[in-house]
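COURSE: Structural Biology Practicum
ASSIGNMENT: Worksheet 4, Part C
STUDENT ID: 0417
INSTRUCTIONS: Below are two proteins. For each, the amino acid sequence is given first, followed by its structure token string. Answer the questions at the end about the second protein only.

PROTEIN I
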Amino acid sequence: MTALTDYYPSPDEVDWWCERILERAGEADLQVEMLDEEVWPFRLGVRHTGGMFVSLKSKALGDFYGFWQPCPSGRGPLLVHIPGYGAELSAHPELVADGYNVLHVSPLGYGTPQGPDESKRPDGRWPVFGDTARSLGKAGYVDWLAQAASATLWALGQEEVEPDRFAFFGTSQGGGMSVVLGSIFRDSGVRAVAGDVVAFSNLLGDFDVDSAQPGGLLSGPVADIAANRPDDLPAACKALGFIDGLSHARRMTMPTLVLAGADDTACTAEKIRTLFDRLPGTRSYTVVAGQKHAYTTPFLHMARAWFRLYV
């Protein structure tokens, strides 16, 4: 029986795909506006550190939002935070206090200053993963990543940013896409990547189409295609292969930190270990005992040390 990973893209195809995403991001007509929106609510906030919502609009790529926190010293490195699958917007005052500029980006307009845009998830789930599989890679994460890359290029062009010192970090989807973005920016000066409970690592390595749940968040689209569009299954698996960390591991020549939860059943420690084992450069792998799938407490402490060392 053919393994679904046999349909994954070749190394040359991954190289070409990364180049095209970065090229598309660089050619985008991105218009960025700082928004006069309330940041810290009355009941809770970190008012010692500023920040502002930003609107990012592009005729070529679409519209989305971010949260921009410039460093207090007026010039410093850049850390780009990538959201989990919940599409939440995050602030990182502790990293700003460390002297970094921090950009959080929420692609495809899922997260807004007013909260999640529920019109974009009519069935209660963000469609980016399913769109990737169903479109055979013509939509979904290819657009999501182009927006994230274009926002990164914008931030690198800000006068308070040292453009040769930047890194990506995130949790779950954010960790997995930080790996992919690190690969995309490999030859553009990225210094480090840090991923927490990293998603999309060995994504289809043990996937069983026959036992997949048709309504499952990640397995559903693949199971649906296998059942209703079997001729498209190889192309769908190839499209998903482009966002699998294993396809990018050989390109991860920058220092890469990954963290896993021992009790995480969504992004298992075993799958994250398969990514770690293929990383060719400076690397770190930590398993947190008793940790389920969630933002982990140790991650930011470890990431801050990682950034101090390598960014």
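PROTEIN II
(use this one for the questions)
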Amino acid sequence: MKTPAAHTEGKIRGYDDVSLFEQTWLPAGDPRGVVALVHGIGEHSDRYGYLVKRLNDSGFAVCALDNRGHGRSGGVKGHVNTWADYREDLHVFMRYVIAKFPNIPVFLYGHSLGALIVTDYVLFYPDGIYGLIVSGHPLRPTGSAKPILIKIARVLSRYLPEFSLSLGLDDNTLSRDPAVVKAYREDPLVHRRVTARWGTEALAAVDRVRERAGEIRCPLLVLHGGADKINSPEGSRELYEKSSSGDKELFIYPGGYHEPHNDLDREKVASDVIAWLEARSEVK
């Protein structure tokens, strides 16, 4: 597999001056398109290496952000004061990406938490992208939204917003590839806790996206592992069905776990993503 022609990394300022880590991988020639990548909860942008390489090999540049409170970005771990923190940080990042690659199609790709961030984002900022890719969307989280836990989080969010709670995720449900699970467990940039305020803001964002999914009109690609034990694939089906996009596709990978891009059938997942991008990357 080819190596990228160039890899750069740096820091940009979030909407409220929080330091955000960003990195870009360039293909060997002029990019035919750009994928702006938003990662999941508790992880960071370096965990998408296989997908990045495949995209680079196919002529696409990839720009990725570590969300606030994640990876090499600033902020309290697993915390936002309001969901608008994520939304406005992403707006800053998208303006940065579009300015960096003028006149080149830019696509937005989000996984899990990132999928929730990007679908919420296009409800407020629908212009400027050629398409939206969402993976493992948490529209129907499994096991993490029990009524008693929601009540506790709401009380704590009001009085102790930065009170830390365990995510309670089983590492083995991320991927069927033992090497992926091992790397995740040993990754010093991975964290496993979120705050009470994060929990209530995430639930509100899920409700907002569910209620307003019909406003999503851009080209849409929805990916989900069929055996995802963290977020039910039925949530992705619901998002797909509710979207008003006239150009949308849904891929549910039989037996797949939570991270399609890191699972045993990642070659097919990457090929599906690339084929979708290639069909929509002609410069208008």
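ANSWER KEY EXCERPT:
Q1: Residues 77 and 200 are 16 Å apart (CA to CA).
Q2: The chain has a mean pLDDT of 93.
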